Amino acid sequence: MKNSSPSFNALLASVPHIASPDQMQRHMSDMSGYEGAMPAVVFRPVSTEQVSAIVKTCVAENRKITIQGGLTGLAGGACADAGDVVISLESMNRVEEIDTIGGVAIVQAGVILENLCHAVQQEDWYFPLDFGSRGSCLIGGNVSTNAGGNKVLRYGTTRDLVLGMEVVLPDGTILNMLNRVIKNNTGLDLKHLFIGTEGRLGIITRLSLRLFPNPQTRATALVALDSFDHVTRMLKEARSALPDLSSFEVMWQSYLVQAALHANKELPFEGSYPIYVLLEIEGADKDTFHDGFHAFLEFLIESEIGRDVIVPQTLEQADSLWQIRDAIGEILRSIRPYVAFDIGIPLKHMPAFIEQVTAVLEKEYPQAINLLFGHLGDGNLHLTTGKLQEKEIFAVEELVYQTASGFGGSISAEHGIGRIKKPFLKYSRSREELDLMSAIKNLINPRDIFNAGRIVD
Amino acid sequence: MKNSSPSFNALLASVPHIASPDQMQRHMSDMSGYEGAMPAVVFRPVSTEQVSAIVKTCVAENRKITIQGGLTGLAGGACADAGDVVISLESMNRVEEIDTIGGVAIVQAGVILENLCHAVQQEDWYFPLDFGSRGSCLIGGNVSTNAGGNKVLRYGTTRDLVLGMEVVLPDGTILNMLNRVIKNNTGLDLKHLFIGTEGRLGIITRLSLRLFPNPQTRATALVALDSFDHVTRMLKEARSALPDLSSFEVMWQSYLVQAALHANKELPFEGSYPIYVLLEIEGADKDTFHDGFHAFLEFLIESEIGRDVIVPQTLEQADSLWQIRDAIGEILRSIRPYVAFDIGIPLKHMPAFIEQVTAVLEKEYPQAINLLFGHLGDGNLHLTTGKLQEKEIFAVEELVYQTASGFGGSISAEHGIGRIKKPFLKYSRSREELDLMSAIKNLINPRDIFNAGRIVD
């Protein structure tokens, strides 16, 4: 009686929802390939108060909740269990305020990332989060999974873009922490409990986000190199010489060949090199911007760090290079079933990790191709292995995660754990860490009402 | 019997310590003015295992622990209670590894910040944390208080510089989380429990820290402006035009006059202006670096955002400007008793906040002077008020914190809460937030064995 909550029928009468199996079909699964099941109902609340009311009723009636954003996740975190109450944030899609003095946006969690970026750009500011699913992912999902993307090197991960948030806890309590200042040292910074924990500890309903000056121009180049050692030297030089550096994307030769093929592009260089870096800078439009970039590229060739360079002369040519980098979707469709790894490896161990893991993969699974690319500035390596047989997948995952663990790596640099990587979490986190994570989960979400079965129990 | 631990006498026989009141005198208090008391013993462990052993024995014998670093804190967090067991990290002072490929340093928590910066620079990398106490503060204390400083605008707060850590929990468990990669999305990022919580949840024993390319050159300028509105316009233009921007320090006229007086410097400008910005960029040594800076300063004057500019021609002249900015210590000694506020205020509310709070202060405490300066790029305002009478201090604090709260501000942007600001925490954090902070404190530190009486109970 303490937590008075509406009955389930009262909720249905007051909160927008869908309950027909046809309409709920698309709310069963995300993009991970994990098979979700039919929920009982999909609520589409329009306010934080409605989210809180749903949660309180589910507590009272002992129902489980699956939280959903844009359903673009790659770890199965948004997939429903049979009979779940789904809370979809997609109707909480308002950009509430853009503070053009302080560079802060206050938004509801259900705003589509691309819409947020456009709204901010119209005020001549910039929100630098960017990745392939930008047109359908929701900012709340980006934060709850601490999404990465192409510009982490310059602006940080999603975590670094969050100034504050409003959260509904598993007992329905609303925590308003919509802080707007960068420096706020008043004890435990609670927002970090909810960033990257994929809805296990709370439902993010609103966010205050950090904005950046709107870059007026970009420049891109593709550099061919002789070895990974040259890449790490180039990375250090680039970070030092180019304060505007926004992307440092590495592609190994076999990836470039496959990607050009699938993107219907000619190979960019006449010759063939072991490894390539796609470099981007973004900043103010002034002479010194392009001069500094060209001087750096000349330095790379003169110092023999780089072997060859392509500098696109038009936006179309630059886009064409990015299309090669982004052709991974097309490649993956052609090598099903596959595993797409998203690993963090300390740079100094990356050559040894790659050598060791590809040697075993080539020996044990000779019919599969192994493609390598990554956001190297962040130690983030993508390895895709396919075609495999379904029954081989678990063993391939076990092999790669165990090897990564041996090199002090992370089994997920950016995609998260969800349901799919839960069996492998032990390769990234010690027994003591898992115990502490569980203890905090049990403190805040004791009845496992939010997103049961994900990350840790 | 489950947690076997050495007896207190066995600890004394094996762990370096001091126990004479003369020697322990300096371990009673930090730089906050809070009066600490005489501890029972000061342990100076040299290894994580020794820290863990001390904690386990204190659990078994029900003794309280105060954790100490360089004793430079301004919130009373390191001050001992009578009879405490003090654990001083000062002997755990090894830089264990500097990874020159990935740009990562692995260090013990007791390294003096300045020593760390020097060791990193010798390997041609850069650790950008910087503030006045650099010669005596310890990196573990910097992390546990999430210290701020002069370069947050460019490199973030201490939190952003921490890749991973090793921590001893209040039951003696050692958590090894010395992660080396920037992107690591594997559930709850536990390090954030220990950053900024001032030793309430664990003792940080080792750290992996993020390094940056070593800047080869710096440039400084002092700009005079007509109003705070011009300062916010200048900030946005500077962030956009100067990717190398590392400091944006604002001084109001009355601060500049007092500071020049106490630093024995002439006033930098012939005329008098309402407000000034000390600007610094640091980066690669190339023509475009200085050209871009001078072009920006010209733009400021042409666009009438700035009224006048001083560009030092020598390092000595630049140092002289920074000495004015840093003269706050000398000023404070002359206005005792004083309150030195360290507030976070959203930029758009800052003029209204300043107007409101100084009007009341001038009316109620006409004998005190109010000086304003701050790291404005971060929304961090320093206000110092003195001379006051001792009995007036609490009311002045109450007034300023309550007013800051009304503008969505933070009562501590960088100095932390400790013992001194604990009574005012309610002005920055809601009842629900304080409850959650307490619940987590009670989960991890249930017997209040670490740093009792700080932040929340």
From TrEMBL, chains A, B:
Q: Which GO terms describe its biological process?
A: respiratory electron transport chain
Q: Which UniProt keywords apply?
A: FAD, Flavoprotein, Oxidoreductase
According to the UniProt entry, where is the signal peptide?
Answer: none
- Fetch the PROSITE patterns from UniProt: FAD_PCMH
The lineage's top-level taxon is Bacteria
- Cofactors named for this entry: FAD
The transmembrane residues are none
This one is known as Oxidoreductase
